[in-house]
Amino acid sequence: MPITIELPEEIEQQLETAWGNLSRRALEALAVEGYRSGDLSAGQVAEMLKLSVWETEKFLKEREAYLYYSPEDLRQDIETQEQALSR
Q1: Which of 44, 54, 60, 87 could form a disulfide with 65, with the two C-beta atoms 3.0–4.6 Å apart?
Q2: At 61, is the secondary structure helix, strand, or coil?
Q3: How many CB atoms lie within 10 A of CB 63?
Q4: pLDDT tens, 14-61?
Q5: What pTM does this model have?
Q6: Nearest-CA neighbor of 43 among 56, 25, 33?
Q7: Residue 60: Cβ within 10 Å count
Q8: DSSP state of 86
């Protein structure tokens, strides 16, 4: 689905000079925000940006886009690991 963003010409030129491909940068920003908010998975980011799994990991890390990992998530992971190791 095409999305159009209206910018004043001067700002468009300024950003294109600084960033290069403005359409790509807008798509990347949308992907990062979707991932940070938990609305997109890493797989969906990879699909949007046509990146491999490893390229996606690198891309997200460079932008400090880390998926929220709560203390409760950690406790559950530790419990699961302890159960698996006790068998």
Answers
A1: 60
A2: helix
A3: 15
A4: 999 999 999 999 999 999 999 999 899 899 999 999 999 899 999 999
A5: 0.73
A6: 56
A7: 20
A8: T
Locate 2 and state its tokens: 């095409």
Per the CB < 8 A criterion, the answer to whether 42 and 57 are in contact is yes
- Per residue, what are the HEC states of 16-71? HHHHCCHHHHHHHHHHHHHHHCCCCCHHHHHHHHCCCHHHHHHHHHHCCCCCCCCH
User: What's the chain's length in residues?
Assistant: 87
Q: Which residues contact 15 (CB under 8 A, 6 or more apart)?
A: 7, 22, 25
Give the separation between CA 41 and CA 76, rounded to whole angstroms: 20
d(CA 27, CA 25): 5
DSSP state of 15: H
pLDDT value for 44: 94
17: its two tokens? 């000079």
